[in-house]
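Handout, section 4.2: multi-component inputs.
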Amino acid sequence: MPDPQAPSLITPPDIDDSQLVEQAVNGDVNAFNGLVLRYQDRVYSIAYRIMGEPDGAADMTQDAFINAFRKLETYRGGSFIGWMGRIVTNTCYDELRKRKRRPQTAFDDLPGGDADDGPPIASDSITPEEAAQRSDLQQAIADCIRALNDDQRVVMVLCDIENQSYQEIAEIMNLNMGTVKSRLSRARVAVRNCLQAVQELLPPEFRLGDEG
Amino acid sequence: MEPYELTDRDAELLSAYIDDALDAEQRSSLEARLAQDADLRRELRSLQQTVALVRSLEDVRAPRDFTLTPEMVGLGDPTPAAPERPALKVMPRRRNIWQIAMTSAAAFVLVFAGVLVVMRVMDNQSAPTDTPAQVAVAPTLTAEVVADEAADEPENANLMVATLAETTLAQTMTVQTEGYSSRQAIEATPVITIVDGVAIITPAVNMPTIPEVTPLPTQSLSATPLPGSANDTGMIVPVSPPEDVESDDSLGDEGFALEAQPTPSEPPIALSVQQATPTPAPTLMAQTQARGAGGAGSDTQDGEAEVAEVPQDSAADSAASEPIPSDADTTMGGAASAEESAAPKTGDVLGMLLGGLYRSSAETTLFRLPNEQVVTLQDALDVFLRIAAGIANVEATR
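Output:
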């Protein structure tokens, strides 16, 4: 049965984000769904990097879109995905803290080796070998991020995946700048040390520590 | 290559340097060190590569669409996204008011009737001083009424009145909410549990629709059964002007009369069954279970004591004609229980009991309306009495 909400029919690609936001803020769920379809991979990916597993990431993604729709009037222009990224990050971070208070070991203590990273978005121009190699590398990076503690991981995702500034990160996580810098540097050092264990996966130009 | 100990401080500097987040002074200082220190350069390079690798992570594909439905954001069906949990949590909101009013009022009336029955039985048996019927007048009195009976069919009344000792009160605080849904299909069971001034009410699912009734203006209404027909129907018929029905003689075999003067604010009820002595009213805890006529009569009730059982006639008739079974005694409540061996005193006790019951009902909060107005058991009783008077009026004019 065709979905009556089928947003692909109603969101031609030439409508820009701000127009959709404008319609959505007036209660047009279909317009908002245009934005959902446009950015759901990105939002889900952020959630997935933070949560470290697909089910929780999907839940957080859905919650984040609902939250975003409800507080759409607080969106002050600028990059919609930047705003959306902050919302999904916050949603995930709240959930992680909730889980920390009431631990669910099944999710938080995964060693990270066998998690399904989901299929990377395919690019048309690479060979299967390249794809496999890239997939291994991607998997290794993802595993090293997943191995971080929650606080470091969220800061790293905000900075290096969402490209939020230190100032924005401080506001999102309610931290001072010094703490943001310190958590980020520790996260980067930890990921580097993690990746050094899988040097052979890295392309030559990324052999860590090698002089270029 | 010997491991280079990167200090936290240097790691922060390098990390911020990568993001171009150092101020000019820090930056030039760090660059001067980097120019001299190959190890530090190597650290910087490895961290730069790490950041590049993390940033090279590709998005993963969403496992499904996350499009919203109007319901998800509270725009579709008016199904409340997060209904507040009221204290009476078994009940959906809609049908509350009338069912609570009717149920609680019916239960209250059944308590009245039950007490009356006991009193009358006691009167009939009052000659021997070792009568088993005793009425508790302890400061705290727990009365439990189990009536296998719908309120509008009193001729099938099967009343059990029990008074429990205060000490058993804690055990009788059974909240009759669980299991309601599983039983609702087979019986209409309005259940009222009044514990410590808080009433928990489970209405019957299939109670008849209650007609809208415009409350009468404040007025004195007096209800007394019609001779003859009253015993058959159990109907309370208002008479005007109010006539005092007093003492045991006028109660007679015809049943009982009760006069109520409900006023919106502070209704001083005059229960003229007997001039109620101004004895301090006992705190009355009533656990009342008015059970639908279709319900399984033998379904075990949670009440811990059922004491007086009156056979299946109308209350007045049975009380007059049949002595109460010997095993159905009304037990003493607490140390202060007074043995009511003297017949003339029963009216006093009754008046005290009913008056106290009615007065205490004003403190029994049934529920709160959305506008924070508190609806008490007494309000429900007032409504019921008015409805009863209205019905009786209709009956009388036929």
